[in-house]
Backbone:
């Protein structure tokens, strides 16, 4: 798992790459909480490089979503790989998150 | 102890090798230069000895030579009356005790009145001097060496030594001087004046010379004949050339030729089958005889050898002492090593309080000891920490085992669970990746004829997941007492779980309720993998389920439910993603396709066999790779 961030216009784009399984999710959670504490209003999570996600990983996505809803901010996910999209669909998470096919579309929101 | 002995042994061997090589080099050098010096000194000594001897002999010979020379010159002056010659000769003998005999011999018919031969000879016999007139057909002196050679050469001549048999019975040599007279105005050879020299004194003089133990000197005549020799049988009997032949030693012949040429030499030579010899030889000036000094090489270097033997003895004693001292020093120096090694063994055996040797030498040994002491302290601390950590870990593990027992006790695992309900056959299995896990299944009878079953998967694994699972399972039973439709139960469950869910844990959940009288199944799903329906007709497919989110996220979420009519022989296979996502060491997943193909093969099997075989297939796939997620399977067979 590799997490990087970049400021594009008014949005903070986080890019996550690799696998987000149970063993990696603790480190991922720490990084995310640190970023959330900075109080960004618009966060886009670019998942083009994410090729596996466990339920622990999904939980962290939920943490971001709830936190952003709490401060009236905006959180969206983009570029999900088909297998990951399937996980989102099956677990009903695609109903919870704002999901975009690519970063451009996500930035326009 | 053995190790330190070997250490000192190795050091001593190295030191001995070095010192011995050094000594060998020094000894060889010493030996080389000393031999050279000894050889030079011996050469000087031999030259001097031979020179002295030659001088002493010349001192005797030279005055003697004067006598016939004077007789000859007197004869040439014609001052002596021929008849008084015998008196003169007798006088010569009386005044010169070293002279054995003296003669004057004239040319043939020199005095016509005295006949063809005329020779006067005076000699000693029994301490008296006699004189005779010699010459005649029985004593034709004209052809004798002492006469003929100086007469032809017209110069003085020393004869070869000869044994005068019948006369003095002694070894002698004759010195001849020719004299001339003037007749008819012409200088003519007139005769020979001689003296005879007895040679025994020469033998004594030469034999008196000793060099080292067995070294000796001898004299050879002009022709290489032995004039003197310590072995008297050689005298006048053997020549250097005859010996060369006899002994098979060409070197002797070479020496003989050099002697005749009058050369002098200091040289080493070897006779066949004899030890190495050294020789010095030189000529006598007056008669060309030669003096040769011979001594064995062995004796020349005897003193050097004695010195070497002594040196080697002292060196050996020194080396032995050095070894003993070194051994003592090394053992004393390395004693702390042995003690530290003993301490190390003691520590290895678990005795951390073993006392280390006290070392105050402020050297490497003390450094070693200090480092060792440091290691001892660190090891001791480390082991205490390890013990504590192990105890703590064991405690946690034991607690986890208990937690696991409690968790497993929460889910039913008596199969078949309802022997008196023929409509239902059922089997379930839960295998946690860690001691405790977040998967759950449950089933129970509601209101006598309703069978409720559920499968869930809490996000994450381990203790947090297990707590959330326990909460879910407890709430499910509580709520099922009150609510009777799956959607209502799910909503109620969700509300309770989402309330104050700070950690954002969630659980995907599927539950179904079968009306045992009608076979109608009501079910609801909260983001869980859709179970598989294995129809009695042979059709196998996943439940078609409307999307909804896992439990525990949003309190007010509305869950929907669906229903379908089960036919006798239908089976429902519910599972968690631990099945499809079981990983092997190449990170390959078990995959849904694989699961479906096994279900296809096993669709006629009992729920127990179906799950057992699925479990075996998963284990085969995973191999020895650690289990990545909790695995739960539940199969319900509806028999109608």
Residues:
């Amino acid at each position: 798992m590799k997490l990087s961030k970049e400021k594009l216009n008014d949005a903070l784009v986080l890019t996550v790459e690799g696998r987000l399984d149970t063993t990696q999710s603790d480190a991922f959670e720490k990084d995310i909480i640190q970023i959330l504490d900075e109080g960004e209003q618009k966060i886009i999570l670019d998942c083009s490089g994410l090729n596996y996600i466990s339920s622990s990983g999904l939980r962290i996505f939920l943490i971001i979503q709830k936190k952003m809803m709490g401060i009236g901010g905006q959180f969206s996910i983009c570029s999900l790989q088909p297998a990951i999209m399937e996980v989102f669909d099956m677990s009903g998470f695609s109903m919870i998150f704002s999901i975009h096919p690519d970063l451009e579309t996500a930035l326009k929101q | 102890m053995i190790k330190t002995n070997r250490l000192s042994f190795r050091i001593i061997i190295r030191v001995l090798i070095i010192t011995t090589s050094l000594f060998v080099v020094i000894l060889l050098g010493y030996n080389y230069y000393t031999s050279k010096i000894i050889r030079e000194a011996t050469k000087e000594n031999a030259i001097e000895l031979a020179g002295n001897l030659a001088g002493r002999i010349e001192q005797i010979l030279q005055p003697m030579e004067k006598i016939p020379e004077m007789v000859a010159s007197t004869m040439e002056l014609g001052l002596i009356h021929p008849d008084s010659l015998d008196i003169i000769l007798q006088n010569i003998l009386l005044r010169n005790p070293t002279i054995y005999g003296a003669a004057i011999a004239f040319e043939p018919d020199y005095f016509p009145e005295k006949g063809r031969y005329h020779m006067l000879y005076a000699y000693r016999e029994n301490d008296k001097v006699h004189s005779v007139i010699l010459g005649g057909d029985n004593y034709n002196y004209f052809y004798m060496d002492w006469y003929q050679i100086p007469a032809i050469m017209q110069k003085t001549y020393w004869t070869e030594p000869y044994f005068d048999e019948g006369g003095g019975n002694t070894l002698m040599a004759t010195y001849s001087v020719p004299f001339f007279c003037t007749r008819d105005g012409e200088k003519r050879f007139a005769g020979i004046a001689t003296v005879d020299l007895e040679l025994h004194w020469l033998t004594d003089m030469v034999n008196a010379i000793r060099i080292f133990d067995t070294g000796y000197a001898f004299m050879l005549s002009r022709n290489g004949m032995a004039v003197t020799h310590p072995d008297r049988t050689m005298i006048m009997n053997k020549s250097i050339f005859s010996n060369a032949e006899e002994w098979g030693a060409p070197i002797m012949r070479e020496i003989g030729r050099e002697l005749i040429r009058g050369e002098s030499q200091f040289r080493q030579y070897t006779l066949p089958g004899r030890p190495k010899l050294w020789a010095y030889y030189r000529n006598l000036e007056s008669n060309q005889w030669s003096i040769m000094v011979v001594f064995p090489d062995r004796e020349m270097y005897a003193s050097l050898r004695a010195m070497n033997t002594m040196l080697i003895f002292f060196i050996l004693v020194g080396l032995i002492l050095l070894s003993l001292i070194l051994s003592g020093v090394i053992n004393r120096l390395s004693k702390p090593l042995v003690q530290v090694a003993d301490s190390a063994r003691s520590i290895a055996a678990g005795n951390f309080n073993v006392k280390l040797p006290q070392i105050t030498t402020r050297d490497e040994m003390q450094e070693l000891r200090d480092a060792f002491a440091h290691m001892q302290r660190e090891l001791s601390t480390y082991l205490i920490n390890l013990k504590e950590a192990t105890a703590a870990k064991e405690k946690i593990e034991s607690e986890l085992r208990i937690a696991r027992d409690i968790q497993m006790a929460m889910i039913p695992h008596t199969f078949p669970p309802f022997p008196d309900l023929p409509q239902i056959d059922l089997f379930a299995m839960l295998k946690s990746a860690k001691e405790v896990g977040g998967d759950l299944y449950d089933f129970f009878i509601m209101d006598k004829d309703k069978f409720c079953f559920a499968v869930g998967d809490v996000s994450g694994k381990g203790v947090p997941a297990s707590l959330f699972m326990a909460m879910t399972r407890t709430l499910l039973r509580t709520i099922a007492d009150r609510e009777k439709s799956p959607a209502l139960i799910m909503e109620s469950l969700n509300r309770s779980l989402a309330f104050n869910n700070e950690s954002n844990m969630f659980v995907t959940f599927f539950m179904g309720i079968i009306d045992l009288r009608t076979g109608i199944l009501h079910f609801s799903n909260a983001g869980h993998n859709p179970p598989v329906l294995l129809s009695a007709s042979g059709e196998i497919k996943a439940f078609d389920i409307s999307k909804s989110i896992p439990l525990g996220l949003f309190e007010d979420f509305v869950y929907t439910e669906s229903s379908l009519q089960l036919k006798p022989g239908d089976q429902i296979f519910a599972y968690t993603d631990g099945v499809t996502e079981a990983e092997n060491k190449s990170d390959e997943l078990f995959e849904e396709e694989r699961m479906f193909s096994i279900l296809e093969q096993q669709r006629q099997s009992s729920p127990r066999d179906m799950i057992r075989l699925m479990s075996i297939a998963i284990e085969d796939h995973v191999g020895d790779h650690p289990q990545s997620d909790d695995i739960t399977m539940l199969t319900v067979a509806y028999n109608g």
Q: What stands out?
A: The first helix of chain A runs from residue 22 to 36.
